[in-house]
Amino acid sequence: MVSCRYCQKKINPDDAIELFDRHYVCSDACRIAYEQTDMYDKDKLLDIAWNLCGKTGDFIRLKSQAEYYHSEYKYKYSGMLYTINYWSNIEGNSWNDAYGLGQIFPQYYEKALKYWHNQQELKKKCRTASSEEIKPKTVTVGVNIANRRANRFKINIEDL
Ligand SMILES: [Zn+2]
User: Which range of residues forms the domain containing residue 8?
Assistant: First the structure.
């Protein structure tokens, strides 16, 4: 039997919804409710870190690091979750087991939040821009390539 992460009900693993490694909920309602909690942000943060270290690291250490940054730096788990995604997917950093979450926090937290803020501003601008301003443009990039190959390098600006 496994426990629902939200209502704690004991459920048969066959009936449970597995959200990620060893994290189950009993229903869609519990999934939605659980995803709104701090606990979800913390669990997901640790799940990502655990996967980054190849599921062979020291999980207890990762957990105590997360709790340390949360209580000492007053970082929100949602912000930390965003930061680890930013650190890994946007910056493309690779994980070093020696430092655990210490390679991400505190140095990337503010940077990631700034990036998030800029993304929000961009989205707002896109919503308010006139259709003329957001009309797709085609640009040709590529220097020192043969003309016959140039067409391959046409990029629709909306794909960027
Ligand atoms: Zn439940």
Answer: 1-36
